[in-house]
Amino acid sequence: MLGVTQTAISRLEGDGEPATLEAAFGLQVVFGIQPRLFCQRLYVTVEDTVMKRATKLDRDLRGKTDPSSLKKLDLLASMVSRSRLTAPRA
Fold it and tell me: Which of 3, 26, 81, 90 has its CA 20 to 30 A from that of 66?
């Protein structure tokens, strides 16, 4: 159903990482589980990288009161909130 090889399935079973984004979404269709739960290590790596960039942007925006900066600061606050509440950790 996923359209992947037996090798890709073995890789998934071995280390929990789908070979492709298409396979990850296929797993969600078949099993109803979000791709980040199948790809926990990758998700954590990406989240950490994005949050480091967000921290730098937050520092650069602090003290600014123009509408664009305030909008970005709101987005950053929302990201932090979601990260702390819902991010699965490997």
Answer: 81
Question: How far is the C-alpha of 86 from the C-alpha of 23, rounded, in Å?
Answer: 23
CB-count burial class (<10 Å; 0-12, 13-18, 19+) for 24: buried
Give CA–CA dist 18/6, Å, rounded: 12
| Other beta carbons within 10 Å of 23 | 21
Is the pLDDT higher at 88 or at 34?
34
One domain, residues 31 and 46: no
Rounded Cα gap, residues 7 and 32, in angstroms:
22
| 74 pLDDT above the threshold of 90 | yes
Residue 23 structural domain: 6-38
- Enter the pTM of the model: 0.69
> Residues 8-49: pLDDT tens digits?
777 777 766 666 888 888 888 988 888 888 778 888 888 899
